[in-house]
Write a structure and sequence with these properties.
alpha/beta, two-stranded parallel ribbon, globular, about 50% helix, 12 helices, 10 strands, binds zinc ion
Length: about 290
């Protein structure tokens, strides 16, 4: 049996009103943890690599790693070129057989965002007609790290602008700004403070565009907001910073537990296990029946 295309899984998720988890990686520990979690729960999953993450892993090396898991285990694990800011990098990811590319023109004017996203869609689809293209509008910050304060120029997406981006570019998936934010505030690390989403805005944008939608910057979001956002039309949910925090704590624990150890594969399991806890918890939530 062959794994269906990412587009097929998006259609299924949209119909069932569940969401596909998207998790970023910088190394094999995270990839291993995400894959084993998704396999255990038997749920499709998307691996994300930002421009920085794929520069570290290697653009085609990331593709080879994910493809090796998909083929060996006949499992729906997909690869997304997260937040891609230039046409040149869109071309590079499409040629490396990525399943999805996000062209991020959210820092541009609406007209320029439409123009460049449209070009990105045309180029990527001319290389691989089955590639899933995502466009982004509104501003939710840029850093998937622990930050001191909310960036002051956050900007929500209007249904009207979202409709224009969708209709004028040919994107398959829309990434709107609906109260979500990249990164985690220091006060969110303990879990006392949570992110909240505008559920009415998600519904309005879904109604205006009828598209699959991605919720970026999911880390630290209130659980019931996640569930409501997915019921209201979010098809993919991105989580990165929570995994990075889990990774770091795991490495610190691994070093503490093995003070004399130098073999990475004896130190890293603590990081893998920490990341798995986050991923399984999130995948269960994103796929809970509504
Ligand atoms: Zn993002």
């Amino acid at each position: 049996m062959n794994v269906k295309s990412l587009l097929e899984y998006l259609k299924e998720a949209d119909e069932k009103k569940v969401a596909i988890g998207h998790f970023n990686i910088s190394d094999l520990a995270a990839l291993k943890a995400i894959f084993e979690s998704a396999k255990k729960l038997n749920l499709p999953v998307i691996i994300g690599v930002s421009e920085g993450e794929r520069e570290f892993i290697g653009v085609s090396q990331a593709a080879a790693l994910v493809a090796s898991l998909r083929h060996e285990y006949n499992f729906p694990i997909f690869l997304n070129a997260d937040h891609t800011h230039s046409i040149e990098k869109v071309r590079e990811a499409a040629k490396a057989y990525y399943d999805q590319i996000i062209f991020d023109g959210s820092s541009l004017s609406l007209a320029e965002n439409i123009k460049q996203t449209k070009e990105a869609v045309q180029i990527a689809k001319s290389i691989n007609p089955n590639i899933v293209m995502e466009g982004e509008i509104g501003f939710i910050g840029t850093s998937s790290e622990v930050i001191d304060k909310v960036p002051d120029n956050l900007e929500l997406t209007t249904p009207r602008d979202a409709k224009r981006l969708v209709e004028e570019t040919g994107i398959d998936v829309l990434a709107p700004a609906v109260g979500n934010m990249h990164g985690l505030l220091k006060t969110m690390l303990t879990g006392e403070v949570k992110k909240h989403l505008s559920i009415p805005l998600i519904k309005e944008i879904k109604a205006a565009t009828g598209k699959f939608m991605t919720l970026h910057g999911g880390s630290g979001t209130n659980d019931s907001d996640f569930v409501e956002a997915i019921k209201s039309g979010m098809t993919i949910v991105h989580v990165n910073t929570e995994l990075r925090v889990a990774w770091r704590k795991g490495i610190e624990q691994g070093l503490k537990d093995n003070p004399q150890e130098v073999a990475p594969y004896k130190i890293m399991p603590a990081a893998v296990s920490n990341i798995k806890t986050v991923v399984e918890n999130r995948l269960n939530l994103f796929n809970s029946p509504s």
